[in-house]
Amino acid sequence: MHPETQTVVLASRETVPFDYLVVATGAGPRLPKVPGLDVDGIFTLRNVSDALRIKRFIQDRRAKRAVAVGAGYISLEMCEAFRTLGLETTVLESEARPVMRLPEEFSAKIVEELQANGVTFMPRVNLEGFDRSPSGIVVRTGNGPLEADLVLIAVGVAPEVKLAAEAGIALGRTGAIAVNDHQQTNLPFVYAAGDCCESYHRVSRKPAYIPLGDTANKQGRIAGANIGGQDVTFPGIVGSQCFKVFGLEVASTGLTEDEARQLALTPVSATIQGVSRARSYPSTKRLWLKLVADTGTRRLLGAQAVGAEGVVSRINILAGALAGGLSLEEIAYLDLAYAPPFSGSWDPVHIAAQELLK
Amino acid sequence: MHPETQTVVLASRETVPFDYLVVATGAGPRLPKVPGLDVDGIFTLRNVSDALRIKRFIQDRRAKRAVAVGAGYISLEMCEAFRTLGLETTVLESEARPVMRLPEEFSAKIVEELQANGVTFMPRVNLEGFDRSPSGIVVRTGNGPLEADLVLIAVGVAPEVKLAAEAGIALGRTGAIAVNDHQQTNLPFVYAAGDCCESYHRVSRKPAYIPLGDTANKQGRIAGANIGGQDVTFPGIVGSQCFKVFGLEVASTGLTEDEARQLALTPVSATIQGVSRARSYPSTKRLWLKLVADTGTRRLLGAQAVGAEGVVSRINILAGALAGGLSLEEIAYLDLAYAPPFSGSWDPVHIAAQELLK
Asked: To probe the interface with B, which of A250, A335, A354 has the most B CB atoms within 10 Å?
């Protein structure tokens, strides 16, 4: 990329001129600094062709034993896929529990769900490296070696910003490309969108790096509309995310209690156990919801939830509440559509807000 | 009720004094003005004991043929119950379609769902009365007579306000008891809560009569808290409601296009067909979502939706958006939790808002 001459040079050495440039280089998987990453059967997952390569490997090699390194949502979603394909599956995590952002008791629900579905979860594992063995891969750890036919490494992602940084495009404090609410970089004719760039976080009121497919889509649309002559602003994110692991929904929006503290806020929180439908409704399921609010302003800061159903729908209500700046008092009496197949007359959202107001 | 002496007189003639009075007389079913309402086997449904009476009647009389008069949500929910118990079920509606508040195409989905589940739906039926016959009940209509073993009359409800009105408690223009945001009536020591009173509608910015169990619960809590010495205000409703009829979820929030026009607003609307989960996800289902906005201010006024799943959860997001006063632009880019089991990267909520912004 050569902003000064408004050209890019392709790998084929061809030079292409531009009026506007959109940097959409995405993010790549981070790799642990251990030897043996080139051993056959060790994979990362970035795109559909990676997924197909993994699937083909499992079929061709009749893989029976999968090890996933890392316990974030990519790893956990893949564990479900491995189990569906009949593989013996083990998750290694350097920290004490999966999805460290979540409240400890919610991570515990995830561990239960993994175990109930035949996945072995190994916390506090120090990964030392990989070796080829006659029967597959040896995963060396501080707790001793493990045998595997296939290893997935999913310990997070980093924005692909090398080309952009070399071209003089400014990065933000998160390490991703800094953009304004039109998705413009510091160079007005260069836009960035997707997993390579930051987003404005409406709750922390700071740029954040939370690379997700839906945000990437929105940023791309904003960049395109502005290049096309419209004047469209991206309102930013509130940090909503979710995933499914076997029969468990896991979702969050806004800040966690720890994140709020790191921003020098004084958070207060309440965690409730609720039900997805009315208690009288035959198939109702338990769910757990934690709300985090600012002590001084009583402003909602974030929410995390886990349960068999109705989790994402509650978090999305709260995502809208964060975007609308609703107070805890308003959330406690929010007019949600009520019928017994869908909730109790007091929804878990109301109950959690009232609990926190105490 | 004797506010002037701060006493109430019970049916037993006992006089009970009060410092504060809460009027919670609820609502009763409205009845059509036709002869024969006292024929055995004609029911209305107000509470659990009514439901048990109906169930017992079906069992004791081995009822085989049910006719429901009216096609609102109570009637439709009961049709599902009748079919579950194996009854031949017919719905008679004086209007052209069920749930007249809804967009015409959504009523059509409900008719399809009724028919797919063996319910006969008869629109534009003029009810003339009921007669006893040797084999049960004859339902006389402008289209000719129908035979039934059991008739449910569900043509709406009216607030029970006779005692309150006689006691000098002011009614609002809707005919229900007028209350302020503390649930106080015109008499400061008399409160009202539940289906006998109005609610402030945050979208129309007028008192409305939309009697629902969740609103009643909220009003009761507000009345109790204020009587108990707290100073708690009810923010009002946005008109959210939902029901399930067989495999169909039906939900709405805010105003319909017609209601907005009746309030002298100039609404604009867009209806989209979306999917409940990502298109790539195996069990995704179709849903239909209509958004209504104000032409001048681009403010969201309401939403209606119907579909096999994910309908109530979308309406609840929009209920929060109405409470937070989000603009269509903000809704179009709202940061919802995304993963393929729960939505596409563009949720139907986003797609509908973008369609309406065109």
From this structure: A335
CATH number for the domain spanning A191: value is 3.50.50.60
> Domain count of chain B?
3
**Site from B219, B284, B335, B357 to mutate, A interface, most A CB atoms within 10 angstroms:** B335
C-alpha of A124 from chain center: 21
Using CA coordinates, name the residue in chain A closest to B237: A335
* Residue in A closest to B219 by C-alpha: A333
Q: Is residue A210 part of a domain?
A: yes
Same domain, A212 and A277: no
Regarding whether A217 and A308 lie in a shared domain, the answer is no
- Asked whether residue B1 carries a pLDDT value surpassing 90, the answer given is no
As a whole number of Å, the CA-based R_g of chain A is 23
Instruction: Let me know if residue A204 belongs to a domain.
Output: yes
| d(CA B344, nearest CA chain A) in Å | 8
Q: Are residues A35 and A151 in the same domain?
A: yes
Q: Which residues of B touch A326 (CB under 8 A)?
A: 320, 323-324
ipTM: 0.94
> Would residue B234 count as lying in a domain?
no
pLDDT tens, per residue, chain A with 358 residues: 899 999 999 999 999 999 999 999 999 999 999 999 999 999 999 999 999 999 999 999 999 999 999 999 999 999 999 999 999 999 999 999 999 999 999 999 999 999 999 999 999 999 999 999 999 999 999 999 999 999 999 999 999 999 999 999 999 999 999 999 999 999 999 999 999 999 999 999 999 999 999 999 999 999 999 999 999 999 999 999 999 999 999 999 999 999 999 999 999 999 999 999 999 898 999 999 999 999 989 899 999 999 999 999 999 999 999 999 999 999 999 999 999 999 999 999 999 999 999 8
pLDDT on residue B270: 98
Find the residue in B nearest to A333 (Cα): B218
Note whether residue B39 is domain-resident: yes
Q: Is there a contact between B192 and B186 (Cβ–Cβ < 8 Å)? A: no
Do B168 and B23 lie in one domain? The reply is yes
Residues A51 and A103 in one domain: yes
Q: Quote the domain boundaries for residue B198.
A: 7-27+161-227
pLDDT of residue A1: 87
Instruction: Give the DSSP letter of residue B34.
Output: -
Strand partners, A89: A66, A119
| Same-domain pairing of A96 and A75 | yes
Among the partner residues A318, A333, A341, nearest to B235 by beta-carbon distance: A333
From the list B167, B146, B160, the residue with the least C-alpha distance to B30 is B160
pLDDT digits 0-9 by tens, B304-336? 999 999 999 999 999 999 999 999 999 999 999
The helix (H) or strand (E) run that includes residue B349 is: helix B348-357
* Contact state of A240 with B329 under an 8 Å Cβ cutoff: no
